Automatic annotation (TrEMBL):
It catalyses: a 2'-deoxyribonucleoside 5'-diphosphate + ATP = a 2'-deoxyribonucleoside 5'-triphosphate + ADP; a ribonucleoside 5'-diphosphate + ATP = a ribonucleoside 5'-triphosphate + ADP. This is Nucleoside diphosphate kinase. Belongs to the NDK family. The active site is at H134 (pros-phosphohistidine intermediate). It comes from Denticeps clupeoides.
Length: 168
């Protein structure tokens, strides 16, 4: 009887452990210009996350306005929109367990001066207005941002051969 419940618990736990979420990550124009795209990708790959979509584009002002619509009332909104549409961006969708929470830690604080060494912003940035990367701050915003930047057919679904080495 005990073994039945233990097996049931273990099966449920393993199923929960396999739950994958997605996050939108974008290397901003300053990160692209500084040649940091590979470094960002490297860090996400080394962490064990799986890249499921990526595109290189110069976003329109309309796309950038929509992306940052929740910041519209803030004084830096116009400058942010202008900057984000000023040059090429690498837009990506990454997948993995707890990726939204973990990627926010990997990015560091919005203000690089407040970011710890070892984070992307802590290691690679100096000013808040040139913090090289955007990452979704919640599952809800990740879904919104992914749907804004990517069509469903642009997403690739595959099982990583390393999944068993990364997840229990």
């Amino acid at each position: 009887f005990f073994f039945f419940f233990f097996f049931l618990f273990l099966s449920t736990f393993n199923a929960m452990a396999g739950v994958q979420e997605r996050s939108f990550i974008a290397v901003k124009p300053d990160g692209v210009q500084r040649g940091l795209v590979g470094e960002v990708i490297k860090r996400f790959e080394q962490k064990g996350f799986r890249l499921v979509a990526m595109k290189f584009l110069q976003p329109s002002e309309d796309l950038t306005k929509e992306h940052y619509i929740d910041l519209k009332a803030l004084p830096f909104y116009a400058g942010l929109v202008k900057f984000m549409s000023s040059g090429p961006v690498v837009a990506m969708v990454w997948e993995g367990q707890s990726i939204v929470k973990i990627s926010r830690v990997m990015l560091g604080e919005t203000n690089p001066a407040d970011s710890k060494p070892g984070t992307i912003r802590g290691d690679l940035c100096i000013q808040i207005g040139r913090n090289i990367i955007h990452g979704s701050d919640s599952i809800e915003s990740a879904n919104k941002e992914i749907n804004l930047w990517f069509k469903p057919e642009e997403m690739v679904s595959y099982k990583s051969c390393l999944a068993e080495q990364i997840y229990e």
